[in-house]
Design brief:
This protein has helices at 11-28, 41-49, 104-118, 133-141; strands spanning 2-5, 55-59, 65-75, 86-95, 123-126. It is an alpha+beta fold. The chain is globular.
């Protein structure tokens, strides 16, 4: 397995993975998440070129996509409250459902964490929905800890 920056040729498999993530969110919170495409092809092509929003893919020996990590650099310079730390935020991390348990997700996470360190980031962050307990367990297993908790009252 190799991990590299996403390329336009990865878009069809990235769409398949995005659909799996979408379904997990829709099944967990159909009141919030509808079934649909998070990005179209043109949007993905733009993201793939954006160095501020790197997308990494894990690929097999035939260069077939196994999983991905969508990331975003965040920094609040000269903010009145927040320090100027540079953060790499994982917007999305997914491995094909039939390949889970083979440590592909862990490898993507570790690669992303190493990339954040090399990019002089202070931390690596992400959000996980409470309805996605398996993702929460995975992130805890790689050493992540809650930073903040979002709460709601449905009216």
């Amino acid at each position: 397995m190799t991990i590299r920056r996403a390329q336009n040729k990865d878009i069809p498999e990235v769409h398949e993975l995005l659909a799996q993530v979408d379904m997990v969110h829709h099944m967990g919170r159909p009141d919030i998440f509808k079934i649909g495409n998070k990005y179209n092809d043109d949007e993905l092509m733009e993201l793939i070129k954006d160095d501020n929003r790197p997308i990494f893919v894990a690929v097999d020996e035939n260069d077939k996509t196994l999983g991905y990590a969508f990331c975003i650099f965040k920094q609040f310079e000269n903010d009145n409250v927040l320090t100027d730390i540079k953060t790499l935020y994982i917007d999305d991390l997914c491995v094909f459902e039939n390949l889970r348990g083979q440590h592909i997700g862990r490898a993507l996470y570790e690669y992303t964490k190493d990339f954040a360190k090399k990019s002089d980031c202070y931390n690596l962050t992400l959000n996980v929905w409470s309805c996605n307990e398996s993702a929460q367990r995975f992130y805890e297993s790689v050493g992540m800890k809650p930073q903040k908790v979002g709460m709601e009252t449905i009216l």
